[in-house]
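Re: [ENG-882] Designed sequences occasionally contain unexpected residues at chain ends

Forwarding the minimal case from QA. Structure tokens:
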């Protein structure tokens, strides 16, 4: 039994949001500037909170969890909330929403036509909601962060950054050693991704005794070498880690150094503040900075007229705590198989032996690395389907487009199943390929069985051929039906002409 003292948890969640608000307000006046800064603190008036999409996008995710339930959250649910409740259409936000409106589902909505922005900062800045609703469960927080980030960042560095930061923040509810948290975060992303390389380089520079200013210059050179440039996730997450390392996790010192690095300063400052708030609670927040800012939340991204959103860090904390009964059922995927429970208590916090090793590693990094760039998933109660295109889902008139369809049995109803495939296409289109897949019951008892048997999946390849006249947007439906089962798996498919 994993027990978390209710007041202690509330203190850390509140400190997370207050720290986020402080950093966002302090960093916003310098956002996008590329010079080395020399700030001393706030330049805003006392009580003035600057609006920041870093925080207020998360109010929409909170609403989604409250309305559909935390377990139902995935990229497709969040995509609908993007369209309904989020106003801005700048950069990756706009590209993602444009693709969604065309019928392109996540994560392809974050990939298509998004080369310039899929590596940017829009996702790792909005991960606190996943960490605060899944404290001490970095795998769960990281998976939620992926489902969130891929809507507008696909499988780019922006998504890897969100997974990394969410895992760190979730683990920080249990562990307050920064280096351990960095290792946990790195264990959730592909080892060869740019984000991981930037973080490892920053840590090494610190260990080698380099000044933070020289480390900043090193990271700017890495931006040139990788071609990523300014306003991208690897460099700005590295600035955040730089601030924490050279600032020695002192709230003021760490935040000022991170913001002094320049670039996306509201994001780096806000994430420094939220992580330190989680690690140490309200004792980490300087009293003078807390008094200067106050408690209010000012939004810039949420669409008005669509109901209630929290208007203060206090209200936001209370809303998060109200979801705990649904989100804290298991502390960690590795312990979930043993039936461990994560509960709130009025007594002493007791993590029941949960260690950093328990929270490190797992399958997430490997799953991210092997995902095809233009792919998406669909589910029903007994089946999981993966659709993978050979290239972007765009077809010429009279041309062809091939995709792989992999069906996997969900272990809840894991008997042998023959899936019959039918593709409902626009007039004049044709589909060729093996129109069935047989998925066997997963075999868990032996380590030496073939991967396909152990995981109960099978793949077929289908080629679509377009007629000589096609529309700009072409909508189809893939149906996977099992004889004797009343519920087919229907997969929406949009091909751009």
């Amino acid at each position: 039994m994993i027990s978390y003292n209710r007041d202690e948890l509330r203190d850390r969640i509140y400190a997370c949001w207050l720290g986020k608000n402080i950093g966002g307000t302090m960093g916003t006046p310098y956002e996008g500037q590329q010079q080395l800064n020399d700030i001393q603190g706030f330049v805003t008036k006392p009580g003035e909170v600057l609006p920041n999409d870093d925080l207020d996008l998360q109010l929409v995710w909170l609403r989604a969890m409250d309305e559909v339930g935390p377990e139902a959250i995935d990229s497709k649910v969040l995509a609908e909330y993007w369209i309904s409740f989020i106003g801005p259409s700048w950069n990756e936000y706009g590209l993602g929403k444009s693709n969604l409106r065309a019928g392109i589902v996540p994560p392809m909505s974050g990939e298509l036509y998004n080369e310039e922005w899929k590596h940017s900062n829009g996702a790792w800045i909005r991960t606190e909601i996943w960490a605060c609703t899944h404290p001490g469960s970095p795998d769960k927080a990281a998976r939620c962060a992926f489902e969130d980030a891929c809507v507008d960042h696909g499988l780019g560095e922006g998504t890897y950054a969100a997974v990394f930061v969410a895992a760190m923040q979730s683990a920080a509810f249990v562990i307050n050693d920064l280096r351990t948290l960095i290792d946990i975060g790195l264990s959730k992303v592909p080892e060869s991704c740019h984000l991981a390389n930037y973080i490892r380089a920053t840590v090494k520079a610190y260990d080698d005794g380099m000044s933070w200013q020289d480390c900043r210059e090193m990271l700017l050179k890495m931006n040139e070498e990788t071609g990523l440039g300014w306003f991208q996730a690897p460099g700005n997450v590295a600035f955040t880690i730089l601030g924490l390392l050279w600032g020695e996790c002192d709230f003021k010192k760490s935040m000022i150094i991170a913001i002094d690095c320049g670039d996306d300063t509201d994001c780096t400052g806000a994430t420094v503040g939220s992580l330190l708030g989680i690690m140490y609670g309200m004792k980490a927040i300087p009293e003078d900075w807390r008094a200067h800012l106050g408690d209010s939340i000012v939004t810039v991204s949420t669409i008005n007229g669509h109901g209630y959103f929290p208007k203060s860090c206090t209200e936001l904390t209370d809303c998060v705590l109200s979801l705990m009964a649904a989100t804290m059922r298991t502390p960690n995927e590795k312990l979930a198989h043993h039936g461990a429970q994560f509960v709130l208590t009025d007594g002493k916090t007791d993590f029941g032996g949960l260690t950093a090793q328990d929270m490190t590693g797992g399958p997430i990094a490997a799953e991210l690395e092997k995902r095809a760039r233009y792919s998406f998933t669909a589910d029903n109660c007994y089946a999981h389907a993966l659709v993978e295109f050979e290239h972007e889902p765009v077809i010429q008139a009279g041309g062809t487009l091939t995709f792989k369809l992999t069906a996997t049995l969900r272990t809840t109803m894991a008997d042998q199943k023959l899936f019959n495939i039918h593709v409902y296409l626009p007039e004049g289109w044709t589909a060729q390929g093996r129109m069935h897949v047989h998925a066997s019951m997963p075999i868990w008892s032996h380590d030496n069985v073939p991967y396909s048997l152990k995981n109960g999946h099978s793949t077929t390849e289908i080629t679509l051929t377009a007629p000589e006249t096609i529309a700009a947007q072409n909508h189809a439906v893939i149906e996977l039906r099992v004889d004797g089962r009343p519920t087919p798996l229907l997969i929406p498919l949009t091909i751009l002409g």
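QA comment: On inspection the terminal residues look reasonable. The CA atoms of residues 162 and 484 lie 42 Å apart. Proposing we downgrade this to a documentation issue.
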